[in-house]
Design brief:
The chain has 385 residues and is α+β, with helices and mostly antiparallel strands. It has 10 helices and 5 strands, in the order H-H-H-H-H-H-H-H-E-H-E-E-H-E-E. It is rod-shaped, with a radius of gyration of 44 Å.
């Protein structure tokens, strides 16, 4: 019925036609035919048939029923003039609007008054007038109720559609954020390890004949760094593959307290690093501590790759009550940037900036005033309310 409303309207029209025909038969059996059948039956059909199209052409059908109902009621053939008028009043209230329904109600009152005047015989018509008024009032109230219910259901469906759209959008945002986080972690692990391996491999190739001991230490560093990188990559991939945590020991994520070990590995790779820490780093939030470590790691990795031979690096980490400041300077050649040029922003710089911004911090990367390269990050310890 909901998918094909004309089917339901056809059944309503057929029901009203059958009722009128039964009244006609009853009247014919009791008092004889009031009107010839070739007048009554076609007029009954003409009065009820427009209801089939009441939802498709409500105004046209309403006024067609008004005209045909006036003829039907004046000839006193049956009840179809009243029932079809009541159904069309309900239809206009529900599907068209109160103003058009009010105009139609006024027209119906006028037509019924005229019909009563033409067929007036005794006081029984007052009872019929009261019945007509009650029927019209009931149909108006029913149309208001059903229209409000339909509007409520439409609003609920719209809100459900909006919630579903918001949920899909939130899922896409969550997936994008997760992909960015995974990309940062993979870059931090791979870039640092590969940079150390490349530097050590170059050094080993130069010292292979002149200083075999130095070449052997470089190869050992390469081996150790590669194993550590593989272990961390396997840990990340294991977390990504399995929804449930697998059994077995977990290697903890590095944090700000591991900066000493990081500086030592870079020294072994060939870049002297001076590390200065002011304040206690043990009580930092996990995310902030990891962000500090990764920013220092990426900065020293860039020093390994771009600073050139003989470069030195200095790392200063200062903790206050509100934030942690990280400064990494080197005295190497770095990336040559002319005035007005855009600073290089590879994946490493992007990752550092994301790590700082996600906690409401800031990151400055560029040439140092006295030469070399400088990275300065400021990360709040707690998010602002």
């Amino acid at each position: 019925m909901r998918g094909h409303p004309m089917v339901g309207d056809s059944l309503i029209a057929l029901l009203f036609l059958v009722i009128d025909l039964m009244l006609l038969l009853a009247q014919t059996a009791a008092d004889g035919p009031a009107k010839p059948w070739y007048v009554s039956i076609p007029l009954d059909i003409a009065t009820t048939a427009p209801l089939v199209f009441r939802r498709k052409y409500p105004l046209t059908v309403a006024y067609a029923v008004l005209v045909l109902g006036f003829v039907h009621g004046t000839l006193e053939i049956g009840s179809a003039s009243l029932t079809t008028a009541a159904v069309m009043l309900y239809t206009l209230v529900m599907y068209v609007g109160r103003r058009q329904a009010l105009y139609y109600l006024g027209a119906q009152i006028a037509v019924n008054v005229l019909s009563f005047a033409l067929t007036w015989r005794d006081g029984a018509y007052w009872v019929f007038a009261v019945v007509v008024g009650l029927v019209f009032a009931f149909c108006w109230v029913l149309g208001e109720f059903m229209g409000a219910r339909q509007a409520y259901h439409a609003e609920v469906e719209a809100r459900l559609h909006l919630l579903e759209t918001e949920r899909d959008q939130a899922s896409r945002i969550a997936v994008a954020e997760e992909r960015g986080r995974i990309a940062r972690e993979l870059h931090d692990v791979v870039a640092h390890a590969v940079s150390v391996i490349v530097v050590q491999a170059d050094g080993a190739s130069y010292a292979l004949r002149t200083n075999p001991d130095l070449a052997e230490r470089a190869i050992q560093t390469i081996s150790q760094t590669g194993r550590e990188a593989l272990a961390e990559l396997r840990r990340l991939l294991e977390v990504l593959r399995n929804e449930q945590p697998a059994d077995g020991p977990r290697v903890p994520q590095p944090d700000a307290e591991s900066l000493g070990e990081l500086a030592q590995r870079v020294r072994e790779a060939g870049v002297p690093v001076r590390l200065e820490i002011e304040g206690e780093l043990a009580g930092l939030p996990t995310g902030v501590s990891l962000g500090v470590y990764r920013i220092v790691q990426e900065s020293l990795t860039n020093t390994l790759k771009h600073a050139g031979p003989g470069a030195r690096a200095q790392v200063r980490v200062r903790r206050s009550e509100e934030c942690v400041e990280v400064e990494v300077d080197d005295d190497g050649a770095g990336a040559l940037v002319s005035a007005g040029d855009t600073l290089p922003g590879g994946n490493g710089v992007i990752g550092m900036r994301e790590r700082a911004n996600v906690y409401g911090g800031s990151l400055e990367v560029g040439p140092a005033p006295g030469g070399g390269w400088r990275v300065h990050a400021r990360i709040p310890i707690r998010l602002a309310p």
